[in-house]
Design brief:
Shape: elongated
Structural class: mainly alpha
Number of strands: 0
Helix content: over 70%
Number of helices: 3
Strand content: under 5%
Order of helices and strands: HHH
Distance between the termini: 34 Å
Length: about 100
């Protein structure tokens, strides 16, 4: 469970970085620069893939966390991980489905 929670947090951090990268690159394209933000393209591609895959992992984590909460075994996880993932999930839904 700890590994899954930490993996979800890492992917959620990549999601935040992905949103920032997208906003910065859109601003640069508006100015006429079409270069990538990070010089090492495979690193940027990996961050973006982990970032957009985070919504699936976060949903699975939240379903598992609800299950573990009712079993009483959620106490083994730090609360900040659960709250971080819970707060970030609506943001992920908004960015994924409602933003342009």
């Amino acid at each position: 469970m700890r590994f899954f929670a930490r993996l979800t947090v890492i992917c959620n951090i990549c999601f935040i970085i992905t949103v920032i990268l997208r906003a910065v690159e859109q601003a640069r394209r508006a100015k006429g620069s079409f270069d990538g933000l990070i010089g090492f393209q495979p690193l940027q591609a990996t961050i973006v893939i982990l970032g957009y895959g985070a919504i699936i992992l976060n949903l699975a984590f939240l379903i598992a966390a609800i299950t573990w909460y009712f079993r009483g075994s959620l106490n083994r996880l730090p609360r900040w991980i659960v709250w971080f993932n819970l707060i970030l999930f609506p943001c992920q839904l908004y960015v994924q489905f409602l933003s342009k």
